[in-house]
Each structure stands twice: as C-alpha cells, then as structure tokens.
Write a structure and sequence with these properties.
It is found in: Cytoplasm. By secondary structure, this protein is α/β, with parallel strands linked by helices. It has 16 helices and 20 strands. The structure holds inosinic acid.
Length: about 450
C-alpha cells in the first residue's frame, strides 16, 4: 500500500501535519523531489524540530528515504542529523545513489543568477530560496551533475569535478566578472565531498532507491511518498518561470523513487489544500489580498494567525483568498483520490470570506488555469462569498468529528468537494497534529 501526499497550491499547505499524522501508519517515508528548499516543523514528544531535508518520518522512528529525484546537500543533511542526534534521536535516513548532490558552487550560482535577473529588469527573478536547487537540476539535465553514488568513488568524483568546475569558474569569472572562491577549488571540494561519501557509506545510508523500496514493499511495508513544495511551483505544471526545478506533482513520486506509476497509482493520492492561499517569491496571484488598506489589514491578520513566514528564509508570505481554478488544475494534474483542507481555524472569526470561484479573461469565464503565466497574470477572479464562522475549540472539534465543525465551515468544505469532485479526507483545525478531523484514513 502506498499513500502520496501532494501540495495543491504554492507550497506551505501544511503537508507536514498530514505526513506526521498518516506517516505514523507507514513503515517508510520517502521524499521524491526537491532538497533543502523545503521547510517543515515536526513536533514530537513536545519537542519541535525544524527540518528542511531529513524526511519527517525519520524523527518518528521510521525509515526516511531521499529518493533519486531529490537534490541533496550533504552539509545540510549531516547538520540536521547531528542536531537530531544531539537531542537524543537516532534518525534512520537513506539516500538514493542516483540522487544529485548540491555542491557549494550551485548555491553560489543560484545567488548570482537571481541577482542578475533582478538587475536585468526582465521580470524573471524567481525569488528562490538560494539553496542551489535550480543549478543542481540544471546540471542533472545537462548530464554534468555529481551524484551521491559518485561521492563513494574518489576517482570518479575527481573526474566529475575536473570536468565541471572549470566551466563553473568560467561562468563566475568570465560571464559575471566575479571572483571565484573555495566553492570552485577542485582539491578542496574533492576532499570535503569524498569525506561525505565515506561517511555515507560507513553509516550505511546509501541505497539503490528502487531496489530498496521494492524489497521493503515485498516484505509487506507500507510506503508514504512525501511531496515537498506544491503543484503551482512544479517545473512542468506550475507558473513557469516562477517555479522550483522539480516535479512536486504526483507523477514525481514514480520518477523520483523508482517505484512504477502503476504502484503509486494504485495507492491513495491526497492533495493538501490550505483554506486560503499563500505565496513566497514572485509570480501571479489573482486572489491576492493587496488591493487596498482593508485587504492588506486582512492579509496581515491571516499572516499572523497562520504563521505565514517562510520556514527556510523567514520571508513574510503573500496572502490571498482560496483560488479554485488552481485547485481544479491541481486535481487533474495529480489525480487525487481525496483532499485534506488545512487551517480552517485561521479563517474563523473573519468579517468576510470569499473564494476565487472562476477567472475572467477577455470577457470569458474560465474554470481552470491558462497554461502561460502571462495569461494567468491577466485573469481577474470571479468571487463567491461564503458565510463566516466563529472561533471554535479545536480540541473539541477534533474529538467531535466532522459534524462538530461549524455549519458554515462544512458548507465551505462541501463546496470544494463538489467543485473538485473529490472527497475531503481530513480537515486541519489547529496547529497540532492531533487537531485534525479525520473522515477517512487513506491507509484503510
Ligand atoms: P527554489 O526551489 O529555491 O529554486 O525556489 C523557486 C521558487 O519556489 C521560489 O519562488 C521559492 O520561494 C519557491 N519554493 C521553494 N521551496 C518552497 C517551499 O518549500 N515552500 C514554498 N515555496 C517554495
């Protein structure tokens, strides 16, 4: 049995809480894309752990795997594992040999390219997390990347570095006219990354991901695929170029782990939806609350109440009403078997509540997204108003179940079920993992 958890919007939908909740029933939790650009806070035994790379399952005594579709920064990986060990945990993390390595020059180039885009006035600045994600995936597609398996063989690692580093140096020095530093010193890189390779081997952390997951499934293990980021920042299905460089959508669970789509597709695919919308970084957001002072004050309330500040970067997130055309797109792209709607508590007590039901573009009403970001930016939302609901006791509602939710909140959820033709499996009503109304457990 497999369960795939996917972000339906722009990331930060609160996937971590669901992965926590349902990951408890899994034996193995696998990330299939992205790297240390993701951020999730795991609360376990009253302790809070902020992680960006280690799969949250590894904090709970599960096996946490970073699949071949991930990009792995070994510095971050060992730093996070070190912090967890200092706090008395013993995380079991495995890394795919086919996963690509984020090298220090990738981070440097990420920063340089973002700066160049900003200076160019071209409007293509993405607002990346600066973790070197894009440049690493570029090298993967360009067949000049360094993979985890390469770190295990010092000679191969040297060959890879001797080919690629002079190119990166030329980019930094000759194209951008900047000074190269340690991040472009082959010997220093070789020393540090061969050391990481030895450590990965000694600690038994490297796996052939596809074989490993096959064997675990044959032995009867349940596997959860944990998507990072969200559908609208998917490099194929998102608002290109304001996207990350991987596939957070459900198809990525197959290509990013080596478990075939007939297997992942027989399992459950749950889309996580935040009850409103947030965005970090650039790009269109038709339902953004930024029209006037009143809207800005509302956005600021929601931001504070929902803790809408980047986990990785601390940046305040842009806030908007729920965008339903975006969710129709996400439902089609991911093939959801159910959705989980989060943060209904954040919407409680508002004076007004709207959703972007459709878009208007050139006088026509549209129910889904245009394929180009420029056209998407021209869309005007067609709003629907909903009755608001009062603040409620999250613990009592979690215990009382779906019927204990305020009637107006249930109407909101049922509207979504109807529009997306997908059942609501769970509803997040508070920040704690337990503060979730579960209607359907995807494992059963
Ligand atoms: P990158 O992944 O660092 O290359 O950033 C590309 C875009 O994806 C930027 O707009 C980031 O803000 C966004 N992004 C990357 N990771 C996350 C995430 O975990 N949550 C929300 N946005 C993200």
């Amino acid at each position: 049995m497999t369960v795939t958890i996917v972000g339906s919007q722009l990331g930060d939908e609160g996937k971590g809480a669901l992965v926590d909740l349902w990951g408890g029933d899994a034996d193995v939790v696998v990330r299939y894309q992205g790297g240390d650009n993701a951020g999730h806070t795991v609360v376990e035994g009253g302790e809070e752990y902020a992680l960006s790379l280690v799969p949250s399952g590894a904090v709970r005594g599960k096996v946490g795997v970073l699949g071949n579709g991930c990009v792995v920064n070994p510095r971050t990986l060992f730093e996070e594992i070190g912090t967890l060990r200092e706090r008395g945990l013993d995380p079991d993390v495995r890394v795919a040999k086919r996963a690509h390595v984020i090298m220090p020059y990738h981070r440097r180039i990420d920063g340089i390219e973002e700066g160049a885009k900003a200076d160019s006035d071209s409007g293509v600045e993405v607002g990346t997390t600066g973790r070197g994600i894009g440049p690493t995936y570029e090298d993967k597609a360009g067949r000049r990347g360094v993979r985890i398996g390469d770190l295990l063989d010092p000679e191969v690692l040297r060959e890879r570095l001797e080919y690629v580093v002079p190119q990166k140096r030329a980019l930094v020095e000759d194209v951008y006219g900047l000074e190269a530093g340690e991040e472009l010193d082959v010997d220093a890189l070789h020393e540090e990354y061969a050391r990481f390779g030895r450590r990965l081997r000694e600690e038994g952390m490297v796996v052939n991901c596809s074989d490993f997951l096959y064997e675990r499934r044959e032995a009867g293990d349940d596997v959860m695929f944990e998507g990072a980021q969200g559908t609208l920042i998917d490099v194929d299905h998102g608002s290109y170029p304001y996207v990350t460089s991987s596939n957070p959508t459900a198809g990525g669970a197959a290509t990013g782990t080596g478990v075939g789509p007939t297997v992942t597709g027989r399992g459950e695919v749950v889309g996580v939806v935040k009850g409103y919308l947030s965005r970090v970084g650039e790009g269109p957001m038709p339902t953004e609350l930024d029209g006037d002072e009143r809207e800005e004050a509302l956005a600021s309330d929601i931001r504070e109440k929902g803790g809408e500040f980047g986990t990785v970067t601390g940046r305040p997130r842009r806030i908007g009403w729920l965008d339903v055309p975006m969710l129709r797109h996400a439902t089609r792209v991911n093939g959801y078997t159910g959705i989980a709607v989060n943060h209904l508590d954040v919407l409680a007590g508002l004076d007004e509540l709207k959703v972007g039901h459709a878009y208007e573009l050139e006088g026509e009403e549209r129910l889904s997204l245009p394929a180009t970001t420029e056209r998407w930016g021209e869309c005007e939302p067609v709003y629907r108003e909903f009755d608001t609901w009062e603040e409620f006791d999250a613990d009592a509602v979690s215990e009382g179940g779906y019927e204990a939710l305020p009637g107006a909140a249930r109407e909101y959820l049922e509207y979504l079920e109807d529009q997306l033709d997908t059942p609501v499996h769970a509803v997040g009503v508070g920040p704690d993992r337990e503060q979730t109304v579960v209607r359907t457990n995807p494992w059963t």
